Amino acid sequence: MLSKAIAVVTFIFVAPFTLISAEFKSPEGDVILTINYDGATGTETIELDLAGIEDLGLTTIETSTIWTEGVQSFVGIELATLTRALGIASGTIRAVALNDYAVEIPVSDAVTGGPILAVMRNAAPMSVRDKGPVWVIYPYDASSDYRTEVIYSRSIWQLTKLDFQE
Fold first, then answer.
1. Which InterPro entries match (predicted)?
2. DSSP for 85-117?
3. pTM of the prediction?
4. Widest Cα–Cα separation across the chain
């Protein structure tokens, strides 16, 4: 009887981490985003190419920014979708750019209808020259809460790595 209980408990605690890994497709193209998080066996690393990000489900934000002219259309994965897929509900995200510039984003920012990890702007993939390949975009026009110096500072472009920390 005890061995059945241990098996059930093991399944309950191990299965979510197994399922999490299965949701992320191995990259076939150039890796544009590396994610580190605490998993079942310590720090886990996921590498995503553009197709891997697209497979997680894309959404669109139409908004103006302080870095561009007029309303822009950004396509990417919601940060909330990513945190749910990883099973992360709290802590901070250390976001790192190509030039090693880094910012901290609280996981509490990862809400439905909130920021996305944009991979396209105005229907085109973003090059490094155009703040790509990944840019954290908030829906700035949706609320004055998204038009603050703090939020602008979290809008890191040329993003290459996300480190989830408790």
1. OxRdtase_Mopterin-bd_sf (IPR036374)
2. HHT--SSEEEEEETTS-EEEEEGGG--TTS-EE
3. 0.84
4. 67
